[in-house]
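user:
I keep going back and forth on a fold encoding question. Separate attempts, laid side by side, tell us more than any discussion would. Would you put together a sequence-and-structure record for a protein of your own picking? Write it directly below this note and I will take it from there.

assistant:
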Amino acid sequence: MQNPESGNIDVVIADLAWAARINRALGVLLDPIMAPDATLEEVSDKLLKEARDIVGCGDGYAGSIDQESYALVVHAVTEMVGGQCRLAPKGRNIKFFPGKNGWYNGLWGHSLNTHEPFVTNEPGKHEASAGAPEGHVPIVNVLSYPVVAAGELMGQISLANKPGGFVKRDLEAVGQLGRLFAIAIRRIRDLKKKQETEERYRDLVELMQEGIIIDDAESRITYVNHMLCSMLGVSRKDLVGRSLHDFVIPEDRARWKRAQDDRKRGGTGNYELVMRNADGAKVFTLISPTPMFNEDGKFIGSFGVVTDVTRLKLLESQLLQAQKLESIGQLAAGIAHEINTPTQYVDNNVRYLETTFLDMLKMAETARELADAVSRGDDVAALKRIAWGVPDQEFLDELREDVPEALSDSLKGLERIAEIVASIKRLSHPGQTEKKYVNINDSVKSTITVATNEWKYVAEMQTELADDLPDVPCLIGEFNQVLLNLIVNAVDAIKDRIGEAPSERGMISVETAAVDGGVEVRVSDTGIGIPADIRGRIFDPFFTTKEVGKGTGQGLAISYSVIVEKHGGRISVESEEGKGSTFVVFLPAGTDDG
Protein backbone atom coordinates (compact mmCIF):
# COMPACT_ATOMS: atom_id res chain seq x y z
CA MET A 1 0.00 0.00 0.00
CA GLN A 2 1.58 3.31 -1.12
CA ASN A 3 1.99 6.12 1.37
CA PRO A 4 -0.12 9.10 0.08
CA GLU A 5 2.46 11.51 1.45
CA SER A 6 5.02 10.11 -1.02
CA GLY A 7 2.81 11.06 -3.99
CA ASN A 8 2.33 14.59 -2.66
CA ILE A 9 6.09 15.06 -2.28
CA ASP A 10 6.65 13.87 -5.86
CA VAL A 11 4.20 16.53 -7.10
CA VAL A 12 5.90 19.24 -5.01
CA ILE A 13 9.32 18.24 -6.30
CA ALA A 14 8.06 18.20 -9.91
CA ASP A 15 6.58 21.68 -9.47
CA LEU A 16 9.83 22.94 -7.94
CA ALA A 17 11.82 21.49 -10.84
CA TRP A 18 9.50 23.19 -13.36
CA ALA A 19 9.78 26.52 -11.51
CA ALA A 20 13.56 26.10 -11.34
CA ARG A 21 13.73 25.66 -15.13
CA ILE A 22 11.78 28.89 -15.62
CA ASN A 23 13.87 30.83 -13.15
CA ARG A 24 17.09 29.43 -14.62
CA ALA A 25 15.93 30.78 -17.98
CA LEU A 26 15.22 34.17 -16.39
CA GLY A 27 18.73 34.14 -14.95
CA VAL A 28 20.24 33.28 -18.36
CA LEU A 29 18.40 36.24 -19.93
CA LEU A 30 19.64 38.77 -17.38
CA ASP A 31 23.18 38.99 -18.83
CA PRO A 32 22.21 40.05 -22.37
CA ILE A 33 19.42 42.29 -21.06
CA MET A 34 21.66 44.18 -18.65
CA ALA A 35 24.67 44.41 -21.00
CA PRO A 36 25.55 48.03 -21.86
CA ASP A 37 25.59 47.11 -25.56
CA ALA A 38 22.43 44.99 -25.42
CA THR A 39 20.63 44.38 -28.72
CA LEU A 40 17.15 43.07 -29.44
CA GLU A 41 18.65 40.48 -31.78
CA GLU A 42 20.85 38.94 -29.08
CA VAL A 43 18.13 39.07 -26.44
CA SER A 44 15.55 37.59 -28.85
CA ASP A 45 17.90 34.75 -29.82
CA LYS A 46 18.41 33.69 -26.21
CA LEU A 47 14.76 34.28 -25.34
CA LEU A 48 13.53 32.05 -28.19
CA LYS A 49 16.02 29.32 -27.31
CA GLU A 50 15.01 29.31 -23.62
CA ALA A 51 11.29 29.40 -24.45
CA ARG A 52 11.59 26.46 -26.86
CA ASP A 53 13.71 24.47 -24.39
CA ILE A 54 11.22 24.97 -21.56
CA VAL A 55 8.04 24.01 -23.43
CA GLY A 56 9.71 21.52 -25.79
CA CYS A 57 8.51 22.82 -29.16
CA GLY A 58 10.15 22.81 -32.56
CA ASP A 59 9.48 26.24 -34.05
CA GLY A 60 8.88 29.84 -33.12
CA TYR A 61 9.89 33.49 -33.37
CA ALA A 62 10.32 36.55 -31.17
CA GLY A 63 10.05 40.18 -32.17
CA SER A 64 9.27 43.72 -31.11
CA ILE A 65 6.85 46.35 -32.36
CA ASP A 66 8.35 49.24 -34.30
CA GLN A 67 7.09 52.37 -32.56
CA GLU A 68 6.76 54.39 -35.77
CA SER A 69 5.25 51.95 -38.29
CA TYR A 70 3.71 49.53 -35.73
CA ALA A 71 5.18 46.68 -37.78
CA LEU A 72 6.14 43.51 -35.95
CA VAL A 73 9.92 43.24 -36.40
CA VAL A 74 10.99 39.59 -36.04
CA HIS A 75 14.49 39.50 -34.53
CA ALA A 76 14.81 35.72 -34.08
CA VAL A 77 13.05 32.91 -35.99
CA THR A 78 13.51 29.20 -36.56
CA GLU A 79 13.66 27.68 -40.06
CA MET A 80 9.92 27.61 -40.71
CA VAL A 81 9.93 28.62 -44.38
CA GLY A 82 11.15 27.06 -47.61
CA GLY A 83 12.65 28.51 -50.76
CA GLN A 84 9.29 29.19 -52.40
CA CYS A 85 7.81 31.18 -49.53
CA ARG A 86 7.70 34.96 -49.74
CA LEU A 87 9.11 35.02 -46.18
CA ALA A 88 12.17 33.10 -47.26
CA PRO A 89 14.81 35.92 -47.18
CA LYS A 90 17.44 35.00 -44.66
CA GLY A 91 18.63 37.35 -41.98
CA ARG A 92 16.95 39.26 -39.22
CA ASN A 93 14.39 41.97 -38.68
CA ILE A 94 11.73 40.70 -41.08
CA LYS A 95 8.80 43.11 -40.82
CA PHE A 96 5.10 42.27 -40.75
CA PHE A 97 2.93 45.37 -41.15
CA PRO A 98 -0.65 45.78 -39.94
CA GLY A 99 -3.39 46.29 -42.53
CA LYS A 100 -4.97 49.62 -43.37
CA ASN A 101 -7.47 49.06 -40.60
CA GLY A 102 -4.60 48.76 -38.11
CA TRP A 103 -5.17 45.03 -37.57
CA TYR A 104 -2.60 42.30 -38.07
CA ASN A 105 -3.61 39.47 -40.40
CA GLY A 106 -3.85 35.75 -39.78
CA LEU A 107 -3.33 33.55 -36.77
CA TRP A 108 0.02 35.19 -35.93
CA GLY A 109 -1.71 38.56 -35.66
CA HIS A 110 -4.55 37.43 -33.38
CA SER A 111 -2.75 38.00 -30.06
CA LEU A 112 -1.36 41.32 -31.35
CA ASN A 113 -4.89 42.49 -32.11
CA THR A 114 -6.45 41.31 -28.85
CA HIS A 115 -3.45 41.88 -26.55
CA GLU A 116 -4.37 38.46 -25.10
CA PRO A 117 -2.22 35.30 -25.18
CA PHE A 118 -3.70 32.09 -26.54
CA VAL A 119 -2.98 28.44 -27.23
CA THR A 120 -4.58 26.32 -29.93
CA ASN A 121 -3.83 22.70 -30.67
CA GLU A 122 -6.09 22.83 -33.74
CA PRO A 123 -4.87 25.94 -35.58
CA GLY A 124 -6.85 25.16 -38.72
CA LYS A 125 -10.10 25.54 -36.77
CA HIS A 126 -9.14 28.82 -35.07
CA GLU A 127 -11.29 31.81 -36.03
CA ALA A 128 -8.25 33.88 -37.06
CA SER A 129 -6.58 31.18 -39.14
CA ALA A 130 -5.80 32.16 -42.73
CA GLY A 131 -3.61 29.16 -43.52
CA ALA A 132 0.19 29.02 -43.81
CA PRO A 133 2.00 30.70 -46.73
CA GLU A 134 3.34 28.52 -49.51
CA GLY A 135 6.58 26.81 -48.49
CA HIS A 136 5.87 27.21 -44.78
CA VAL A 137 6.34 24.15 -42.57
CA PRO A 138 3.05 22.59 -41.42
CA ILE A 139 1.71 24.15 -38.23
CA VAL A 140 0.33 21.51 -35.81
CA ASN A 141 -0.26 23.75 -32.80
CA VAL A 142 0.41 27.35 -31.76
CA LEU A 143 1.20 29.29 -28.58
CA SER A 144 1.22 33.07 -28.99
CA TYR A 145 2.07 35.61 -26.29
CA PRO A 146 1.80 39.39 -26.92
CA VAL A 147 4.38 41.39 -24.98
CA VAL A 148 2.39 44.19 -23.35
CA ALA A 149 3.55 46.65 -20.68
CA ALA A 150 1.44 49.43 -19.16
CA GLY A 151 -1.11 48.91 -21.94
CA GLU A 152 1.49 49.29 -24.71
CA LEU A 153 1.98 46.48 -27.25
CA MET A 154 5.74 46.00 -27.33
CA GLY A 155 6.34 42.68 -29.08
CA GLN A 156 5.38 39.03 -29.45
CA ILE A 157 6.64 35.54 -28.66
CA SER A 158 5.07 32.79 -30.78
CA LEU A 159 5.85 29.07 -30.61
CA ALA A 160 4.63 26.14 -32.69
CA ASN A 161 4.76 22.43 -33.22
CA LYS A 162 5.08 20.94 -29.76
CA PRO A 163 4.75 17.14 -29.71
CA GLY A 164 1.61 16.29 -27.77
CA GLY A 165 0.29 19.83 -27.83
CA PHE A 166 0.68 22.92 -25.63
CA VAL A 167 -0.76 23.07 -22.11
CA LYS A 168 -1.71 25.89 -19.73
CA ARG A 169 1.57 25.95 -17.84
CA ASP A 170 3.47 26.40 -21.14
CA LEU A 171 1.58 29.67 -21.58
CA GLU A 172 2.33 30.70 -17.99
CA ALA A 173 6.04 29.97 -18.45
CA VAL A 174 6.26 31.95 -21.70
CA GLY A 175 4.36 34.75 -19.93
CA GLN A 176 7.15 35.07 -17.35
CA LEU A 177 9.75 35.25 -20.12
CA GLY A 178 7.53 37.78 -21.91
CA ARG A 179 7.48 40.11 -18.92
CA LEU A 180 11.28 40.09 -18.86
CA PHE A 181 11.30 40.61 -22.64
CA ALA A 182 9.16 43.73 -22.13
CA ILE A 183 11.79 45.12 -19.75
CA ALA A 184 14.50 44.29 -22.30
CA ILE A 185 12.64 45.96 -25.16
CA ARG A 186 12.00 49.07 -23.11
CA ARG A 187 15.57 49.22 -21.83
CA ILE A 188 17.11 48.72 -25.27
CA ARG A 189 14.77 51.31 -26.72
CA ASP A 190 15.79 53.71 -23.97
CA LEU A 191 19.48 53.05 -24.64
CA LYS A 192 18.94 53.70 -28.32
CA LYS A 193 17.15 56.96 -27.58
CA LYS A 194 20.04 58.15 -25.45
CA GLN A 195 22.59 57.22 -28.11
CA GLU A 196 20.65 59.10 -30.80
CA THR A 197 20.43 62.31 -28.76
CA GLU A 198 24.02 62.54 -27.47
CA GLU A 199 24.85 65.32 -29.99
CA ARG A 200 22.31 67.69 -28.45
CA TYR A 201 22.99 68.19 -24.78
CA ARG A 202 19.71 69.83 -23.83
CA ASP A 203 17.66 67.18 -25.58
CA LEU A 204 19.76 64.49 -23.95
CA VAL A 205 19.17 65.95 -20.51
CA GLU A 206 15.43 66.20 -21.01
CA LEU A 207 14.90 62.89 -22.82
CA MET A 208 17.32 60.62 -20.96
CA GLN A 209 15.83 57.97 -18.68
CA GLU A 210 17.85 59.13 -15.67
CA GLY A 211 17.00 62.08 -13.53
CA ILE A 212 19.32 65.09 -13.49
CA ILE A 213 19.68 67.35 -10.48
CA ILE A 214 21.86 70.39 -9.79
CA ASP A 215 21.94 71.91 -6.31
CA ASP A 216 23.86 74.70 -4.59
CA ALA A 217 26.21 74.68 -1.61
CA GLU A 218 23.22 74.63 0.79
CA SER A 219 21.67 71.64 -1.05
CA ARG A 220 18.90 73.77 -2.58
CA ILE A 221 17.82 72.45 -5.97
CA THR A 222 18.54 74.82 -8.86
CA TYR A 223 17.71 72.52 -11.79
CA VAL A 224 15.97 69.18 -12.40
CA ASN A 225 15.07 67.49 -15.65
CA HIS A 226 11.75 66.01 -16.67
CA MET A 227 12.68 62.47 -15.66
CA LEU A 228 13.38 63.40 -12.06
CA CYS A 229 10.08 65.28 -11.95
CA SER A 230 8.40 62.14 -13.27
CA MET A 231 10.14 59.91 -10.72
CA LEU A 232 8.93 62.06 -7.85
CA GLY A 233 5.58 63.02 -9.37
CA VAL A 234 6.27 66.71 -8.75
CA SER A 235 6.46 69.58 -11.24
CA ARG A 236 9.72 71.39 -11.94
CA LYS A 237 8.58 74.62 -10.32
CA ASP A 238 7.64 72.76 -7.13
CA LEU A 239 11.10 71.17 -6.92
CA VAL A 240 13.39 74.14 -7.57
CA GLY A 241 14.40 75.80 -4.30
CA ARG A 242 13.70 72.72 -2.19
CA SER A 243 16.10 70.03 -0.98
CA LEU A 244 16.12 66.40 -2.08
CA HIS A 245 16.18 65.66 1.65
CA ASP A 246 12.43 66.40 1.71
CA PHE A 247 11.75 63.25 -0.40
CA VAL A 248 14.22 60.83 1.22
CA ILE A 249 12.66 58.26 3.56
CA PRO A 250 13.61 58.78 7.24
CA GLU A 251 15.80 55.66 7.35
CA ASP A 252 18.05 57.02 4.54
CA ARG A 253 18.38 60.66 5.65
CA ALA A 254 21.57 60.05 7.64
CA ARG A 255 23.09 58.45 4.52
CA TRP A 256 22.04 61.44 2.41
CA LYS A 257 23.67 63.81 4.95
CA ARG A 258 26.94 61.82 4.92
CA ALA A 259 26.95 61.89 1.12
CA GLN A 260 26.45 65.67 1.10
CA ASP A 261 29.33 66.19 3.53
CA ASP A 262 31.55 63.87 1.47
CA ARG A 263 30.72 65.81 -1.70
CA LYS A 264 31.87 69.07 -0.11
CA ARG A 265 35.25 67.40 0.35
CA GLY A 266 35.31 66.37 -3.32
CA GLY A 267 33.90 62.88 -2.93
CA THR A 268 32.27 61.31 -5.99
CA GLY A 269 31.18 57.93 -4.64
CA ASN A 270 27.84 56.56 -5.84
CA TYR A 271 25.21 55.79 -3.24
CA GLU A 272 21.66 54.49 -3.09
CA LEU A 273 18.69 56.39 -1.70
CA VAL A 274 15.07 55.40 -1.28
CA MET A 275 12.63 58.27 -1.79
CA ARG A 276 8.86 58.61 -1.77
CA ASN A 277 7.04 60.16 -4.69
CA ALA A 278 3.96 62.36 -4.49
CA ASP A 279 1.73 59.26 -4.35
CA GLY A 280 3.65 57.88 -1.36
CA ALA A 281 5.24 55.02 -3.33
CA LYS A 282 8.90 54.15 -2.74
CA VAL A 283 11.34 54.99 -5.54
CA PHE A 284 14.70 53.18 -5.34
CA THR A 285 17.46 55.32 -6.83
CA LEU A 286 21.18 55.27 -7.48
CA ILE A 287 22.83 58.71 -7.16
CA SER A 288 26.00 59.41 -9.16
CA PRO A 289 27.29 62.82 -7.93
CA THR A 290 29.90 65.23 -9.24
CA PRO A 291 30.94 68.08 -6.89
CA MET A 292 31.42 71.56 -8.39
CA PHE A 293 34.01 74.11 -7.21
CA ASN A 294 34.73 77.69 -8.32
CA GLU A 295 38.12 79.01 -9.40
CA ASP A 296 39.08 79.59 -5.77
CA GLY A 297 38.38 75.99 -4.90
CA LYS A 298 35.23 76.83 -2.97
CA PHE A 299 32.42 74.28 -3.09
CA ILE A 300 29.46 75.80 -4.94
CA GLY A 301 27.19 72.80 -5.37
CA SER A 302 26.92 69.51 -7.22
CA PHE A 303 25.62 67.82 -10.32
CA GLY A 304 23.95 64.44 -9.94
CA VAL A 305 22.55 61.72 -12.14
CA VAL A 306 19.62 59.95 -10.48
CA THR A 307 18.86 56.48 -11.84
CA ASP A 308 15.56 54.80 -11.03
CA VAL A 309 16.62 51.26 -10.07
CA THR A 310 13.21 50.11 -8.90
CA ARG A 311 12.99 47.67 -11.82
CA LEU A 312 16.51 46.45 -11.16
CA LYS A 313 15.55 45.75 -7.56
CA LEU A 314 12.71 43.63 -8.95
CA LEU A 315 15.16 41.80 -11.23
CA GLU A 316 17.49 41.33 -8.26
CA SER A 317 14.59 39.76 -6.38
CA GLN A 318 13.89 37.48 -9.36
CA LEU A 319 17.57 36.48 -9.51
CA LEU A 320 17.49 35.68 -5.79
CA GLN A 321 14.41 33.51 -6.30
CA ALA A 322 16.06 31.86 -9.32
CA GLN A 323 19.13 31.07 -7.24
CA LYS A 324 16.95 29.77 -4.42
CA LEU A 325 15.01 27.48 -6.74
CA GLU A 326 18.29 26.40 -8.33
CA SER A 327 19.42 25.25 -4.89
CA ILE A 328 16.10 23.51 -4.22
CA GLY A 329 16.35 21.83 -7.62
CA GLN A 330 19.87 20.70 -6.76
CA LEU A 331 18.59 19.30 -3.45
CA ALA A 332 15.42 17.75 -4.87
CA ALA A 333 16.87 14.31 -5.57
CA GLY A 334 18.51 14.23 -2.17
CA ILE A 335 15.32 15.24 -0.41
CA ALA A 336 13.44 12.51 -2.30
CA HIS A 337 16.08 9.99 -1.20
CA GLU A 338 15.91 11.15 2.43
CA ILE A 339 12.13 10.76 2.41
CA ASN A 340 12.22 7.47 0.50
CA THR A 341 14.42 5.72 3.09
CA PRO A 342 12.00 6.03 6.05
CA THR A 343 9.09 5.49 3.67
CA GLN A 344 10.56 2.12 2.67
CA TYR A 345 10.89 0.77 6.18
CA VAL A 346 7.46 2.13 7.16
CA ASP A 347 6.10 0.28 4.12
CA ASN A 348 7.94 -2.93 5.07
CA ASN A 349 6.78 -2.77 8.67
CA VAL A 350 3.17 -2.11 7.70
CA ARG A 351 3.23 -5.08 5.34
CA TYR A 352 4.65 -7.24 8.15
CA LEU A 353 1.93 -6.02 10.53
CA GLU A 354 -0.69 -6.78 7.89
CA THR A 355 0.52 -10.41 7.61
CA THR A 356 0.85 -10.75 11.37
CA PHE A 357 -2.65 -9.39 11.89
CA LEU A 358 -4.06 -12.10 9.60
CA ASP A 359 -2.18 -14.74 11.61
CA MET A 360 -3.49 -13.29 14.86
CA LEU A 361 -6.99 -13.22 13.43
CA LYS A 362 -6.73 -16.95 12.64
CA MET A 363 -5.44 -17.53 16.18
CA ALA A 364 -8.41 -15.61 17.61
CA GLU A 365 -10.81 -17.66 15.46
CA THR A 366 -9.20 -20.90 16.72
CA ALA A 367 -9.52 -19.70 20.32
CA ARG A 368 -13.17 -18.88 19.67
CA GLU A 369 -13.76 -22.34 18.20
CA LEU A 370 -12.00 -23.97 21.18
CA ALA A 371 -14.14 -21.97 23.65
CA ASP A 372 -17.32 -23.05 21.82
CA ALA A 373 -16.21 -26.70 21.95
CA VAL A 374 -15.60 -26.49 25.68
CA SER A 375 -19.03 -24.89 26.14
CA ARG A 376 -20.63 -27.77 24.22
CA GLY A 377 -18.80 -30.31 26.37
CA ASP A 378 -16.93 -31.90 23.45
CA ASP A 379 -14.63 -34.75 24.34
CA VAL A 380 -10.90 -34.35 24.81
CA ALA A 381 -10.07 -35.74 21.36
CA ALA A 382 -12.18 -33.06 19.67
CA LEU A 383 -10.58 -30.36 21.79
CA LYS A 384 -7.10 -31.60 20.85
CA ARG A 385 -7.95 -31.48 17.13
CA ILE A 386 -9.00 -27.82 17.50
CA ALA A 387 -5.95 -26.99 19.67
CA TRP A 388 -3.63 -27.99 16.79
CA GLY A 389 -4.52 -24.60 15.24
CA VAL A 390 -3.20 -22.64 18.22
CA PRO A 391 0.34 -21.19 17.56
CA ASP A 392 3.20 -22.46 19.70
CA GLN A 393 5.08 -20.45 22.32
CA GLU A 394 7.86 -19.54 19.86
CA PHE A 395 5.33 -17.77 17.62
CA LEU A 396 3.93 -15.84 20.59
CA ASP A 397 7.45 -14.84 21.65
CA GLU A 398 8.14 -13.53 18.15
CA LEU A 399 4.94 -11.47 18.20
CA ARG A 400 5.80 -10.07 21.61
CA GLU A 401 9.23 -8.95 20.33
CA ASP A 402 8.64 -8.02 16.67
CA VAL A 403 5.27 -6.24 16.65
CA PRO A 404 6.21 -3.46 19.15
CA GLU A 405 9.52 -3.02 17.31
CA ALA A 406 7.74 -2.71 13.94
CA LEU A 407 5.32 -0.16 15.37
CA SER A 408 8.16 1.82 16.98
CA ASP A 409 10.23 1.83 13.78
CA SER A 410 7.21 2.94 11.74
CA LEU A 411 6.52 5.82 14.10
CA LYS A 412 10.18 6.88 13.90
CA GLY A 413 10.01 6.76 10.12
CA LEU A 414 6.88 8.90 10.04
CA GLU A 415 8.49 11.35 12.46
CA ARG A 416 11.54 11.58 10.17
CA ILE A 417 9.34 12.26 7.13
CA ALA A 418 7.41 14.90 9.07
CA GLU A 419 10.71 16.50 10.16
CA ILE A 420 11.99 16.71 6.58
CA VAL A 421 8.70 18.15 5.25
CA ALA A 422 8.58 20.71 8.08
CA SER A 423 12.20 21.70 7.35
CA ILE A 424 11.41 22.23 3.66
CA LYS A 425 8.46 24.40 4.65
CA ARG A 426 10.57 26.44 7.09
CA LEU A 427 13.31 26.83 4.49
CA SER A 428 11.02 28.27 1.81
CA HIS A 429 9.13 31.08 3.61
CA PRO A 430 7.64 32.31 0.27
CA GLY A 431 6.68 35.94 -0.21
CA GLN A 432 8.10 37.35 3.05
CA THR A 433 8.83 41.07 2.61
CA GLU A 434 9.08 42.24 6.22
CA LYS A 435 11.58 41.17 8.86
CA LYS A 436 10.40 39.12 11.80
CA TYR A 437 12.19 38.30 15.03
CA VAL A 438 13.43 34.70 14.86
CA ASN A 439 15.79 32.30 16.59
CA ILE A 440 18.65 31.59 14.18
CA ASN A 441 19.22 28.12 15.67
CA ASP A 442 15.90 26.98 14.18
CA SER A 443 17.08 28.08 10.73
CA VAL A 444 20.38 26.23 11.13
CA LYS A 445 18.61 22.98 12.10
CA SER A 446 16.09 23.18 9.24
CA THR A 447 18.71 23.98 6.61
CA ILE A 448 21.01 21.17 7.73
CA THR A 449 18.08 18.73 7.61
CA VAL A 450 17.05 19.74 4.08
CA ALA A 451 20.66 19.55 2.85
CA THR A 452 21.39 16.18 4.53
CA ASN A 453 21.78 14.20 1.32
CA GLU A 454 24.24 16.82 0.00
CA TRP A 455 26.69 16.51 2.88
CA LYS A 456 26.25 13.13 4.55
CA TYR A 457 28.31 11.18 1.98
CA VAL A 458 31.05 13.82 1.88
CA ALA A 459 31.40 15.15 5.42
CA GLU A 460 30.44 14.78 9.03
CA MET A 461 28.22 17.59 10.32
CA GLN A 462 29.04 19.12 13.68
CA THR A 463 26.91 21.81 15.34
CA GLU A 464 27.52 24.02 18.36
CA LEU A 465 24.40 26.09 18.82
CA ALA A 466 24.34 28.58 21.67
CA ASP A 467 21.40 28.33 24.07
CA ASP A 468 21.43 32.06 24.86
CA LEU A 469 20.85 33.45 21.36
CA PRO A 470 18.64 36.56 21.25
CA ASP A 471 15.94 36.67 18.57
CA VAL A 472 17.01 38.94 15.72
CA PRO A 473 14.97 40.70 12.99
CA CYS A 474 15.36 38.67 9.85
CA LEU A 475 13.99 37.94 6.39
CA ILE A 476 14.09 34.28 7.33
CA GLY A 477 13.56 32.81 3.85
CA GLU A 478 16.48 34.77 2.41
CA PHE A 479 18.69 34.06 5.44
CA ASN A 480 17.95 30.33 5.08
CA GLN A 481 19.12 30.62 1.48
CA VAL A 482 22.42 32.14 2.67
CA LEU A 483 22.96 29.21 5.06
CA LEU A 484 22.12 26.75 2.29
CA ASN A 485 24.61 28.47 -0.04
CA LEU A 486 27.38 28.25 2.57
CA ILE A 487 26.72 24.56 3.35
CA VAL A 488 26.60 23.57 -0.35
CA ASN A 489 29.79 25.58 -0.98
CA ALA A 490 31.43 23.76 1.94
CA VAL A 491 30.46 20.40 0.40
CA ASP A 492 31.91 21.47 -2.97
CA ALA A 493 35.15 22.63 -1.32
CA ILE A 494 35.55 19.28 0.47
CA LYS A 495 34.82 17.37 -2.76
CA ASP A 496 37.56 19.39 -4.49
CA ARG A 497 40.01 18.21 -1.80
CA ILE A 498 39.02 14.55 -1.32
CA GLY A 499 37.44 13.73 -4.69
CA GLU A 500 34.04 12.37 -5.68
CA ALA A 501 34.61 8.85 -4.27
CA PRO A 502 36.63 9.47 -1.12
CA SER A 503 37.96 6.91 1.34
CA GLU A 504 37.50 9.42 4.14
CA ARG A 505 35.05 12.21 4.83
CA GLY A 506 35.64 15.85 5.62
CA MET A 507 34.12 17.94 8.38
CA ILE A 508 31.57 20.76 8.27
CA SER A 509 30.79 22.64 11.46
CA VAL A 510 28.11 25.23 12.09
CA GLU A 511 28.35 27.37 15.23
CA THR A 512 26.12 30.10 16.59
CA ALA A 513 26.95 32.57 19.33
CA ALA A 514 25.55 35.69 20.94
CA VAL A 515 28.03 38.51 20.41
CA ASP A 516 28.05 42.21 21.13
CA GLY A 517 25.17 43.77 19.19
CA GLY A 518 23.74 40.64 17.62
CA VAL A 519 24.25 37.02 16.58
CA GLU A 520 27.19 35.38 14.82
CA VAL A 521 27.03 32.24 12.67
CA ARG A 522 30.23 30.47 11.63
CA VAL A 523 30.21 27.82 8.86
CA SER A 524 33.55 25.99 8.62
CA ASP A 525 34.81 23.24 6.34
CA THR A 526 37.94 21.17 5.84
CA GLY A 527 37.89 21.79 2.10
CA ILE A 528 40.44 22.97 -0.38
CA GLY A 529 40.42 26.58 0.84
CA ILE A 530 40.23 29.80 -1.17
CA PRO A 531 43.31 31.07 -3.06
CA ALA A 532 44.59 34.35 -1.64
CA ASP A 533 44.50 36.10 -5.04
CA ILE A 534 40.71 35.74 -5.37
CA ARG A 535 39.71 35.89 -1.69
CA GLY A 536 38.89 39.59 -1.93
CA ARG A 537 36.59 39.11 -4.94
CA ILE A 538 34.40 36.18 -3.92
CA PHE A 539 31.48 38.43 -2.88
CA ASP A 540 31.62 40.53 -6.08
CA PRO A 541 28.59 40.29 -8.41
CA PHE A 542 29.20 38.11 -11.48
CA PHE A 543 32.52 36.76 -10.13
CA THR A 544 32.45 32.96 -10.06
CA THR A 545 34.78 29.98 -10.15
CA LYS A 546 32.00 27.54 -11.08
CA GLU A 547 32.17 25.77 -14.41
CA VAL A 548 29.51 26.50 -17.05
CA GLY A 549 26.41 24.41 -16.38
CA LYS A 550 26.97 24.15 -12.63
CA GLY A 551 24.60 26.88 -11.48
CA THR A 552 24.65 30.67 -11.57
CA GLY A 553 27.76 30.92 -9.41
CA GLN A 554 26.22 33.97 -7.75
CA GLY A 555 25.52 32.38 -4.36
CA LEU A 556 28.10 34.41 -2.42
CA ALA A 557 27.24 37.68 -4.18
CA ILE A 558 23.58 37.13 -3.32
CA SER A 559 24.54 36.16 0.24
CA TYR A 560 26.48 39.41 0.59
CA SER A 561 23.49 41.38 -0.68
CA VAL A 562 21.12 39.62 1.73
CA ILE A 563 23.31 39.99 4.82
CA VAL A 564 24.88 43.42 4.26
CA GLU A 565 22.31 45.36 2.25
CA LYS A 566 19.06 43.84 3.51
CA HIS A 567 19.99 43.12 7.14
CA GLY A 568 22.72 45.67 7.86
CA GLY A 569 25.00 42.83 8.91
CA ARG A 570 28.42 41.54 7.91
CA ILE A 571 29.79 38.51 6.09
CA SER A 572 33.47 37.64 5.83
CA VAL A 573 35.73 34.66 5.21
CA GLU A 574 38.80 33.20 6.89
CA SER A 575 40.63 30.68 4.72
CA GLU A 576 43.87 28.77 4.37
CA GLU A 577 44.64 26.97 1.12
CA GLY A 578 44.60 23.21 1.51
CA LYS A 579 43.06 23.32 4.99
CA GLY A 580 39.62 24.89 4.66
CA SER A 581 37.53 28.00 5.13
CA THR A 582 35.27 29.61 7.70
CA PHE A 583 32.50 32.00 6.68
CA VAL A 584 31.43 34.36 9.46
CA VAL A 585 27.96 35.94 9.30
CA PHE A 586 26.84 38.65 11.73
CA LEU A 587 23.21 39.73 12.10
CA PRO A 588 22.46 42.81 14.23
CA ALA A 589 19.86 42.62 16.99
CA GLY A 590 17.10 45.15 17.48
CA THR A 591 17.58 47.08 14.22
CA ASP A 592 14.48 45.94 12.39
CA ASP A 593 13.49 48.82 10.15
CA GLY A 594 11.21 46.65 8.01
Remarks:
- Confidence is low (pLDDT under 50) at residues 82-89, 548-553.
